[in-house]
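Notes to self after the call with IL:
- keep both proteins in one doc
- input above output, always
- annotate only the second one for now

Protein 1:
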Amino acid sequence: MNQDKNQILELRDVAVYQRENLVLSEVNLSIDEGEFVYLIGKTGSGKSSFMKTLYGDLPLTQGSGSIVGYDLKGLKEKDIPFLRRKLGVVFQDFKLLPDRNVNENLIFVLKATGWKDKEKMNKKIEEVLDKVGMKTKGFKFPHQLSGGEQQRVAIARALLNDPELILADEPTGNLDPQTSVEVMKVLQDINKNGRTILMATHDYALLLKYPSKTLKCDGSKVFEVVQKNV
């Protein structure tokens, strides 16, 4: 293994359960710092359960796993907010607060994660909105934005605490093809700046357009696939 690469995620003999149901078994994989990795698979193949295990929504009870320096098996309830600060999570349905404008949505997250200094908060918000091409839209409310713009804001929100890893769960799932490509370009730029990204998707057009390391959920397993076999 390349020694100068830091492993951001490593799973060994992991089983993922949704309540009592075994969803995935014998999962062995690692993701290095700076990689862009797709997670593909049919609906119901376990992609979301896999993602939820990574950000502490589902407990890891079998096997061993570490993510951004946290032991997933020994993860305590009180550690989860700290884990999530080192992860940026982007959801399919944006999860923006409808009664607050873009800036207020981002301020809410910063305050919730311990930021106090108003000037630093404003500077950080300007920086992340700039990265996703939304610098002039901070005063707008979610309903005044297109789906693609809302997802850009959601990506900006995920960048607020300089995460070591971004988990994007079907980030283009609610977007039309053109907008999906625009959002993908934003994620690609973020990755080129050194950010590690794991993106669950069923949009095979994006995989062809932006080929990268690909993991597949199928038959309760997760395995790496060669692009042409996708």
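Protein 2 (the one to annotate):
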Amino acid sequence: MSSAPVPATALDLDAVRADFPILGEHVNGQRLVYLDSGATSQKPQAVIDAEVAFLTRANSAVHRGAHTLAAEATELFEDARTTVAGFVGAPPEQLVWTSGATAGLNLAAYAIGNASVGRGAPESARFALRPGDEIVVTEIEHHANLIPWQELATRTGAVLRHIPVHDDGTLDLDAAAGIIGERTRVVAFTHVSNVLGIVNPVTELVALAQSVGAVTVLDACQSAPHLPLDLPALGVDLAVFSGHKMLGPYGVGGLYGRADVLEALPPFLTGGSMITTVTLDEAEYLPPPQRFEAGTQPVSQAIALAAAVRYLDRLGMPAVHAHEKALEARMGEGLRALPGIRLLGDAPDAERVGLWAFDVDGVHAHDVGQFLDARGVAVRVGHHCAQPLHRRFGLTATVRASTSVYNTADDVDVFLDALSGVRSFFGVSA
């Protein structure tokens, strides 16, 4: 078990933990040690209360109806947009509500596909893909930032290419410079790998894409909850994040877009709430963000996500990052000290978030997960929706432990102590 000191932070961890009701639960007779925030985070009482308060006191359809309750609901909904957009450094008109990051990535891919078949205003033509054009992703992408681009390539005749990863988990930027070229139209990549935990070089990748006029799409699911984030300053054209990974509820996320990009992209989903004029033969669409928000919106979820953002803002994202960085260092040191553990993405001096994926020699990841669960420790097992990356490292599954603002050094130590007994339990010699 690691004895590395945890630097003091500005966070009052006892007070933080008291804000999360589920952390008082016991699992299999043990105190819950929740290390699966990379999959979904736990929710503070303030988030739960915000959603319940809306549903019990202000529930009504937004942007529809002139009665008092509808006006109040619309105001709360749009205030939530302003709050969440501000959290990522953007004005509210540059934030589109989605049901999550997967929906946002599909929205981006299908909107570009619609431009490719001549839909949208004349300025949409700059997004059009033609046979032989190239879409560039990386070898480390979550399936949600891979499959939509596979599908777009199939529909348009574009070629899908990928930037490889080094053995230490860092992206091969030399290869990227050779891959991103005059035929590149889209470059889609993750800010932080959900398997490797490494913060990727956004500035360098954006510069390569901009040098050839390609659109950049950033998956910020694993960075928004853990790092101070300013999407406009990063220079990306589009970016997505998911509420349930950043202390918010399920069923809501955001698509950020530069104003000129959103204004030029044609819509993906169509129907009510995103139109100005409709005849039996044609329709005219609202400007962004409403152009991309057809149908019934995730109103209570958006309001609860704004509560999550306010909670993180009160803690301060620099303090959140510093706290989780200390936990990451403690966990990494402890994992390296255990025999038979192979860490993925253990690049020296790489910037990281509090997430480690690893393989236990001689023991299947699912068996490791069940062993830890019996001791009250919740981790993720499997391929983490990143099969190509696991295949790159010769694996089909790993164990992933991921932290959040409510985890403590004791959580890490309980996990490491439990993990130290796995191989002997399964009869694997050291």
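Annotation: DSSP finds 15 helices and 17 strands in the chain. The CA atoms of residues 10 and 371 lie 34 Å apart.
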